[in-house]
């Protein structure tokens, strides 16, 4: 079911080689035989059906009187084609919800901490302290990552023992996320769900997703940082609980993970907790109370 939904394929045509924008209005954007089409005038005597070269454009603008199907959204996401709704004559642009709140305090604070190497490693150490339960003396990021990696291996085994699941180690093929055992599949799906929650929390504060303190290469580095803060308390709890259920039922593991994630997110108020944790690691209380240059003192927990 929905194979490949853990990781969308990269766009097949680079945006530098695409043709920019396409404007569509008064019709339905839909998928027919695997191709994107725009249907207009269905109620008239001369309806039209145009095929849209979704891989050859960077963005589609939907004008008034338009609708879009679920399949169309999936296809656009798969090929990296953006979609926005616009008002008459393109005067306004709409998304649901708006892309971000009208605030910049969190983004400015994040950029300030990220741009100073000493402050950046201080925030990273703070994050590791929250995850590992102790302040590590090391100030080299690669060393911290190595220590964290070793402890995560132990964490996986302990969680598997707690739920009575046979554990053979972490295995993940990004190109084929379902080519592994049930516990690993469950972790893959749970990680995706928690990262989605972290993306909402980051977006809600208008923080900057690319500026991660531990992760670096991804455009969602800060989202991954936040999601990792909840790996043990949320991601692995969801994953191993779902994997245990999958051993007893015929339901797919991704369905069980989604159901378990919905229950855990609601019970633990995960997104609200993530928002609070972001404010904590960025020390927003110092900004709100006018604490001066407190973030530069390299404090740790």
Tag the structure with descriptive keywords.
alpha/beta; disordered N terminus; 10 helices; Four Helix Bundle (Hemerythrin (Met), subunit A); 2 domains; Ribosomal Protein L15, Chain: K, domain 2; disordered C terminus; 4-stranded mixed sheet; about 300 residues; 8 strands; about 10% strand
Your description of this structure?
- This protein is of the alpha/beta class.
- The chain has 2 domains: 80 residues, Ribosomal Protein L15, Chain: K, domain 2; 193 residues, Four Helix Bundle (Hemerythrin (Met), subunit A), CATH 1.20.120.
- It contains 10 helices and 8 strands.
- The chain has a 4-stranded mixed sheet with strand order 1-5-7-8, covered by helices on one side.
- The radius of gyration is 22 Å and the shape is globular.
- The chain starts with 20 loop residues before the first strand and ends in a 13-residue tail after the last helix.
Strand content: 5-15%
How many alpha or pi helices?
A: 10
- What is the β-strand count? 8
What characteristic shape results from the CA principal axes? globular
Number of domains: 2
Q: Topology, please?
A:
Blueprint: E1 21-24, E2 27-32, E3 35-40, E4 48-51, E5 59-62, E6 66-68, H1 70-78, E7 82-86, E8 93-94, H2 105-115, H3 117-132, H4 141-163, H5 182-204, H6 221-228, H7 231-246, H8 253-268, H9 270-281, H10 284-288
Helix pairs in contact: 2-3, 3-4, 4-7, 5-6, 5-7, 5-8, 5-9, 7-8
Quick summary:
With 301 residues, the protein is of the alpha/beta class. Helices cover 46% and strands 11% of the residues. α3 runs parallel beside α4 and α4 (141-163) runs parallel beside α7 (231-246).
């Amino acid at each position: 079911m929905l194979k490949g939904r853990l990781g969308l394929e990269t766009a097949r045509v680079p945006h530098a080689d695409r043709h920019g924008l396409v404007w569509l209005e008064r019709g339905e954007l839909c998928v027919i035989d695997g191709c994107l089409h725009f249907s207009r005038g269905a109620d008239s005597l001369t309806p039209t059906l145009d095929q849209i070269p979704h891989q050859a454009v960077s963005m589609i603008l939907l004008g008034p009187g338009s609708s879009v199907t679920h399949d169309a959204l999936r296809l656009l996401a798969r090929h990296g084609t953006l979609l926005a709704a616009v008002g008459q004559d393109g005067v306004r642009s709409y998304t649901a919800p708006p892309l971000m709140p009208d605030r910049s305090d969190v983004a400015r604070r994040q950029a300030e901490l990220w741009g100073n190497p000493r402050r950046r490693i201080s925030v990273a150490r703070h994050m590791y302290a929250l995850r590992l339960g102790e302040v590590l003396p090391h100030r080299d990021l690669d060393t911290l990552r190595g220590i964290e990696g070793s402890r995560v291996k132990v964490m996986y085994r302990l969680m598997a023992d707690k739920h009575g699941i046979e554990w053979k180690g972490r295995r993940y093929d990004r190109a084929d996320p379902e080519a592994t055992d049930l516990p690993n599949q469950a972790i893959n799906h749970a990680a995706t769900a928690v990262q989605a929650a972290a993306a909402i929390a980051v977006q809600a504060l208008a923080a900057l997703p690319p500026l991660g303190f531990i992760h670096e290469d991804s455009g969602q580095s800060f989202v991954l940082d936040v999601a990792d803060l909840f790996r043990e308390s949320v991601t692995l709890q969801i994953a191993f609980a779902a994997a245990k259920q999958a051993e007893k039922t015929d339901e797919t593991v991704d369905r069980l993970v989604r159901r378990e994630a919905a229950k855990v997110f609601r019970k633990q108020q995960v997104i609200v907790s993530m928002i609070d944790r972001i404010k904590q690691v960025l020390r927003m209380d110092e900004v709100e109370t006018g604490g001066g240059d407190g973030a530069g003192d390299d404090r740790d927990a």
